[in-house]
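[Structure tokenization] protein backbone as discrete codes

[Encoding] learned vocabulary of local backbone shapes

[Begin record] amino acids and matching fold tokens:

___
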Amino acid sequence: MLSNIPKMNLIQFLFHLQFFAAVTVPFFTEWGGLNFRQVMLLQSWFLFWVFAFEVPTGAFADKLGRKKSIVLGCITAGIGAFVYSSIPSIYIFMLAEFLWALGTAFISGADEAIIYDTLKTFKLQARSKDTFAKYSMILSLAFIIASPLGSIIAVKFGLNYPMLFSGVPMALAGIIALTLKEPKRKAETKRNYLSIMKESMLYIRRHPKLRPLVINSILGGALLYYILWLYQVMLKNSGVGIGFYGWVSSGMNIFLILLLSQITRLEALLGRKNLIAATLLIPGIAFVAGAFITNFVVTILLILAIFGAWGFRAPLYSSYFNVHIPSKSRATMLSSISMLAKIAAAVLNLFVGAMMDWSVQGTMIAIGVAALGVAVFSRVREEELK
């Protein structure tokens, strides 16, 4: 049964060999014929279904087993990739996003649960931190490898082929998941997500030290997220061809890994409050600068600054949240904050998509100014982070 751990690492790697990631913008706009408003609408559609499926798929995993949930998740998402690459139609894309959301929800939580329960069976819970750290690193490794391959596939075969080829390792991940062994576990009572959200909102509202952290986390994260959609536009404006997009994407993920390895040093150097401010001030300035600069080297530096800050914020805020959240409520509260962030992103997508159709340059300026505003007017204090 301990073989579940390396098998889950392999499943994680295969599932995230998403070759399309480095060519998403040309895939949607050139091959799919969509405008940015439609692209962002699809992302909101995806987030809606992930939210809707969270409870029923969780109940499925608890009642019928995490193994079956992971198998269904891999296969369903793989089918979604095949559907996505079939016909350039927004209705086909909506069906694909529906399947992808269902697959994502099936895997969400079930993967980490089966890993932890496996360690618990052998009384190896003390290794869980290192095990999950490796599990996360494998995800980044998959993106680093898949991105340049995706660019090569797009140039050689066509813009829809990276999406088509992404379905293959997902299906393979599902086949490997069939060999997992279900650990014994106690039945758990699942609570309604709406009641969890309500309790979490009341908790945040009643704790003035936690509230500004949550607001800063959600607003800042939602704004910086758009680098995933704008960096390819920035590269195109700097004269870079699609074949190079994947290499830049790999560089972004490598830079993030290096940045995360220095989180303790940066915190000691700048202080916690200043570090939080820097994760918005630097990308805010970079977004505004990127709206006007088309020099290739400078564009790369701006992309790295924004993406690095976006990826850096998640583990940083997670540790700061834990200062104010009691251990018995930790999992519930962090899950609720994550859901609030998804809701904010789903709503913001509708406005940002329309703005990008109006003016990409104007959108970048608006996002940059908004990020600077959140940084300047944030009420987070140094003593609240200790």
Observations:
- Residues 241 and 386 are 46 Å apart (CA to CA).
- The radius of gyration is 21 Å.
- The mean pLDDT is 88.
- The chain has two domains: 4-177, 193-385.
